[in-house]
Design goal:
The chain is α/β, with parallel strands linked by helices. The chain is 48% helix and 16% strand. Strand 12 and strand 13 form a beta hairpin.
């Protein structure tokens, strides 16, 4: 049996950052030898210049084909992001390797799948963090919208190539603007590809915007050619985005790390147009757009997501049901789960000949049952115990310490008042001095007592808000379609062993079997 080593880089910058094929190959082979593999049984699959967000990678597909033939015993990869930067794609690859009986090892993350509870805890915390980030983003976006409607350009962290952000406005950088116009002419009139333009810029020694990245990329060139900013108009609130499932690689020295990817476009009526200085004239821009339109490719249909694919089994014959989708010809897609097909002359494994069932209805019931079980479990309480001291929900330990300190100060003032009374009783203080000092102590006591009351009220309010926040998050988890499908699928894979289905009668009966006791 073979031991497969998979290595991948997407750009030359990654090689400079220590992710080179040679570094990955050396570490993975050393790890394989430590596991007992012989040098002759190690086969290396290398992927140079392949994006981690793309499943159509020749070396990866060859590795999976070999795994299906049963010739590979284990696969060794330096880090999970070398396998894929997409959570859903990564889960699909891992599941297929496991079905083929192949062990998966990550050099940087040993024993990554040894604890079911740890995997579940991670998925729950990730989902709640996603919810909170959405709330923060919504509030932040509201403020940005007000500023943009007032005509203010909103800086994005790195100034656009050709411009410099100065005193709340964009001003043209002449040297960079000349490069932008060259890109447009090369693409429109010399018919150069994006990669050819990037290579020509590198050959001419043109620095990038940050001057920290060594090479121009075709993606950067394409973004510049498609950006209407260079024709004098910057649009705000044009796209809908979400945070990337994995962080993109970072250019050394840059502080920005939370990359967001475009998932859709808003209605043009919602766009906010802000005039900016023009770099490219209208004729040149139209020539570029005409070529881009001629090279446009049809987008593939979105992949159909099935929450219970591979987990739904018949409780009578124990066959795993198939997930399927059909188009009614009117642009509406119907999703189903159905029993496995059988040959006409084959003896039926299930005498009841159960029909197909709607996927959405089954998934809704199973998801709600899964969430209810988790909310009643110790794991859910552990999650809130973990989050209670985090920035998401706030930490009340400081408030408790403050109340304890204030109580000690109140006791100290009470003791001081008692000593004053003793000194007055023994004649060590006259009436006037005693009255003044007692009054001062009482003023301090009442002021401190008022602070204690305010702090107690604030603490009770925070506790009520925390309870309301928990209830809001629980309602969000139960809301149909509100949780990211990839996260829902990750929860199912972490908790559910199988879902047994009995569809013999008019109604469908479901039994959810967990992988471990919650």
């Amino acid at each position: 049996m073979l031991t497969a080593v998979y290595t991948r880089v997407s750009t030359g910058v990654q090689a400079a950052e220590g992710h080179s094929l040679a570094v990955q190959r050396e570490q993975c082979i050393h790890y394989a030898l430590a596991l007992g593999a012989s040098q002759a049984d190690i086969r290396v699959y290398e992927e140079a210049g392949a994006s981690g967000e793309d499943m159509d990678r020749p070396a990866l597909l060859a590795l999976l084909d070999e795994a299906r033939r049963g010739t590979i015993a284990r696969v060794i990869i330096k880090h999970p992001d070398r396998l894929s930067r997409n959570v859903a794609d990564k889960a699909m690859i891992v599941r297929e390797l496991q079905q083929c009986g192949v062990e998966l090892h990550f050099v940087d993350v040993p024993n990554w799948d040894q604890s079911d509870e740890a995997v579940l805890l991670f998925h729950i915390i990730s989902s709640i963090a996603e919810y909170e980030l959405r709330q923060i983003r919504r509030r932040t976006l509201s403020g940005k919208l007000r500023a943009a409607k007032g005509g203010q350009y909103m800086p994005t962290g790195i100034d656009p190539y050709g411009y410099r952000y100065e005193n709340g406005k964009l001003v043209i950088v002449d040297s960079e603007a000349a490069v932008v116009r060259m890109m447009y002419r090369w693409y429109a009139y010399e018919q150069l590809s994006l990669r050819a333009i990037a290579k020509r810029l590198d050959a001419l020694g043109v620095p990038t915007k940050t001057r920290l990245s060594k090479n121009w990329s075709h993606a950067t060139v394409g973004h510049i050619l498609a950006n209407p900013m260079y024709t004098g108009t910057w649009y705000f609130n044009r796209r809908t985005t979400r945070k990337a499932l994995r962080l993109a690689r970072r250019v050394p020295g840059l502080k920005r790390s939370n990359r967001r990817i475009v998932v859709g476009w808003r209605q043009p009526s919602d766009w906010i147009c802000i005039p900016v200085p023009r770099i490219v004239d209208s004729d040149l821009a139209e020539a570029v757009n005409a070529r881009r339109r001629s090279r446009a490719r049809a987008r593939t249909a979105k992949a159909k997501r099935h929450l219970l694919g591979g987990y739904l089994t018949c409780s009578i014959c124990h066959q795993t049901w198939y997930s399927a989708a059909s188009d009614d010809g009117k642009g509406t897609t119907q999703r189903w789960y159905r029993r496995p097909p059988e040959a006409v002359k084959q003896t039926p494994r299930c005498p009841y000949r159960c029909k197909r069932v709607p996927a959405a209805a089954i998934e809704q019931v199973v998801w709600r049952e899964l969430v209810h079980r988790i909310m009643k479990s110790q794991v859910w309480d552990d999650v809130w115990a973990h989050l209670s001291g985090s920035a998401i929900l706030g930490d009340d330990s400081g408030a408790t310490d403050d109340l304890r300190l204030m109580a000690e100060q109140l006791a100290t003032i009470e003791a001081a008042k008692g000593r004053l009374a003793t000194l007055y009783a023994y004649g060590d203080l006259d009436m006037n001095t005693y009255t003044v000092r007692k009054r001062e102590a009482e003023i301090r006591w009442h002021a401190l007592r008022e602070q204690v009351c305010r702090r107690c009220i604030a603490k009770r309010t925070e506790a009520m808000e925390r309870k309301a926040e928990r209830e809001k998050i629980e309602a969000w988890l139960l809301a149909d379609g509100d949780v990211d499908p990839g996260e829902r699928r990750a929860w199912v894979e972490a908790v559910i062993d199988r879902v047994e289905l009995d569809a013999r009668g008019e109604s469908v009966h479901l039994t959810v079997r967990s992988r471990f006791e919650l």
